[in-house]
Amino acid sequence: xxxxxxxxxxxxxxxxxxxxxxxxxxxxxxxxxxxxxxxxxxxxxxxxxxxxxxxxxxxxxxxxxxxxxxxxxxxxxxxxxxxxxxxxxxxxxxxxxxxxxxxxxxxxxxxxxxxxxxxxxxxxxxxxxxxxxxxxxxxxxxxxxxxxxxxxxxxxxxxxxxxxxxxxxxxxxxxxxxxxxxxxxxxxxxxxxxxxxxxxxxxxxxxxxxxxxxxxxxxxxxxxxxxxxxxxxxxxxxxxxxxxxxxxxxxxxxxxxxxxxxxxxxxxxxxxxxxxxxxxxxxxxxxxxxxxxxxxxxxxxxxxxxxxxx
Length: 310
Description:
Elements: H1 2-8, H2 22-52, E1 55-56, E2 66-67, H3 71-78, H4 81-112, H5 119-127, H6 134-144, H7 151-157, H8 174-198, H9 203-211, H10 216-244, H11 248-253, H12 265-275, H13 279-304
Antiparallel strand pairs: 1-2
Helix pairs in contact: 2-13, 4-8, 4-10, 8-10, 12-13
C-alpha cells in the first residue's frame, strides 16, 4: 500500500529558475555614460552657480572673496536699479518677439501648407533663416542697417529720411530694428513646428465643416486652432526661454546700447561676469533668472493646460 501511495503521489512542480538581474539592469548600464556626461556638463555647472551666488568671488580682488550669504540677492533687489531695468526690458523683449514670431510663423505655416506650384522651394526659402547662426544673423543685419551702404542709404536716395542715419544708434529706432532682425531668424521656428502639426489634421474635418456651411474663419477657429494648441504652447514656451536668454544677437547687433536701451538681463549678467569679473554677483543674477524662468514656465503650462483635451 505504501508503495502504491508513493506511485500515485503527483510529481513536485519544477522549481522556477531565478530570473537574471542583468537583462533588467542592461538599459541603465547603456544610458549610464550619457547620464554621467550630463551630470558633468550640466549638473556640476548649475550647482557651482548656486554655490558662487552665495560668495563674494572676484579673481581680480581676491582679498574680498569669501562667504556672502544672501548679500548678492539683497543688493540685486534693493540697490541695483540696472537689474530692474534689464529685467523689465527682457520681459518686453520676450513678449514682443514671441508674439510677433507666433503671428507671422502661423501665417507662413498656413500659406506653405497649401498646394501650389513650387511649394517645396517656397518651404525651403521660408525655413532657411533658421539654419543661420545668431552671430551671422547679426552680421547680416549690421550690414543692412549700415548708415553708408545699408537700407537707410537707399531710403535717403528715395527722399525718405536723411543720409547718415543709423537706426542702431538712435534710442527711438534701435528696439524696432533689433526686433525685425530677430524676427527674420525666429519666425521659421514657429512655421516649422506649426506646419508639422498642420499636416496631421484630417481633411475629413474640413470637408464635414464645409458641408455644414462653416466659413474659412470658423474652420480655422474651431478646427485648426484647437488642433494646434499643444504645438503653440510648446513652441511659445521654448521660444520665450530662448529669447529671454538671447545674448548673441543683441550683443553683436547693439552691444546692449545705445545707453543700455537693449540690455537684457542675460546680457547684463555676461557683462558683470566677463567685463567686471564679479562672478559672485553674476551667479546670483543667474540664479534669480533661473527661478523666474522656472516659475513662469510652470504657471504658463498650468494655465494653458498643456497636454489636456483639445
